[in-house]
Design brief:
mainly alpha; Tetracycline Repressor, domain 2; 2 domains; flat; disordered N terminus; EC 2.5.1.141; UbiA_sf
């Protein structure tokens, strides 16, 4: 094994179930589940409830598998970053080889099961998502370019499209619109985090935008992407995929997103870090609200007749 990937082994063997579960990145998995559920429920085809549950489970396990592969590969840099050094591998609670095995098994199981239970288009999309996150993003983009989050954000944007494909066997304009919302959300979300955690990224040698292009350029790009994000959330309204209730929620929450991005753009020093944390926190709830608003709008239209 490459010495650059070695981690403390003092406590290896003392792992608990929770440590292995942490390898799957449950917080990321929860976001994947929400967006996949929305993609599944918004699709024009009704999937058998048992198959729908299997599809969501496979998407979740696939996301967890890619998370484990990410932790396996990034264990060296996780060990030097304050927000990640207590993860199971750098803390020494889980062996890297165990994480690799879990990641590979979970990934293969999720793809094969999804293909057998629904269709192979959905399975292929899930396989590509796992490959994109574990290989394209984790092994290549993350350590080589400040555009890592922009390009790598595609991995986190695929779950609703995978769920849509599981239900319909197709890729449609509506599922692409769901993909685009998450894709545009990713840069301002993670760059806001990078602004107040740039010391960590600097120490780990990760070329995040603030460390490469500087704070002012990063803040400007956050503002630009925030505007693009809000525009993308209005696409469902223009393609007949949503109605007035969703449009009102998207517009109101989007305006505040841009306001927070503007405040961040104007701040420097300690105030900038506070503004970055504020935008990062808001962005977490923002994406959840947008997707739940889409779902609520769908059922209001279905049962309310507007």
């Amino acid at each position: 094994m490459d010495d650059s990937k070695s981690v403390p082994a003092t406590f290896v063997g003392s792992a608990r179930v929770g440590d292995y579960f942490a390898l799957l990145k449950p917080r990321v998995m929860s976001l994947v589940i929400v967006t996949a559920v929305v993609g599944l429920l918004l699709s024009p085809s009704t999937l058998n409830p048992v198959l729908a549950a299997i599809a969501l489970l496979c998407i979740s396990i696939g996301a967890g598998g890619s998370g484990a592969l990410n932790m396996w590969y990034d264990s060296d840099i996780d060990a030097v970053m304050s927000r990640t050094r207590n993860r199971p591998i750098p803390s020494g609670r889980v062996d890297r080889n165990d994480a690799l095995a879990i990641g590979l098994i979970a990934s293969a199981f999720s793809v094969m099961t999804l293909g057998l239970a629904t269709n192979w288009l959905a399975a292929g999309l899930l396989a590509f998502t796992i490959f994109f996150y574990a290989v394209i993003y984790s092994m290549w983009l993350k350590r080589s370019t400040p555009q890592n989050i922009v390009i790598g954000g595609a991995a986190g944007a695929f779950p609703p499209m995978v769920a849509w494909a599981a239900a319909t066997g197709t890729i449609s304009l509506e599922s692409v619109a769901l993909f685009l919302i998450i894709f545009m959300w990713t840069p301002p979300h993670f760059w806001a985090l990078a602004l107040y955690k740039q010391g960590d990224y600097q120490e780990a040698g990760i070329p995040m935008m603030p460390n490469v292009a500087g704070e002012q350029s990063t803040k400007l790009q956050i503002l630009v992407y925030s505007v693009l994000l809000v525009a993308s959330t209005l696409i469902p309204s223009f393609i007949g995929f949503s109605h007035l209730p969703y449009t009102a929620v998207a517009a109101a929450t989007g305006v505040w997103f841009v306001v927070l991005a503007w405040q961040l753009y104007r701040r420097t020093g300690v105030e900038m870090k506070k503004a970055g944390r504020k935008l990062f926190t808001y962005s977490l709830y923002y994406l959840l609200v947008i997707f739940l608003a889409l779902l609520g709008d769908h059922y209001l239209a279905q049962f309310g007749g507007f």
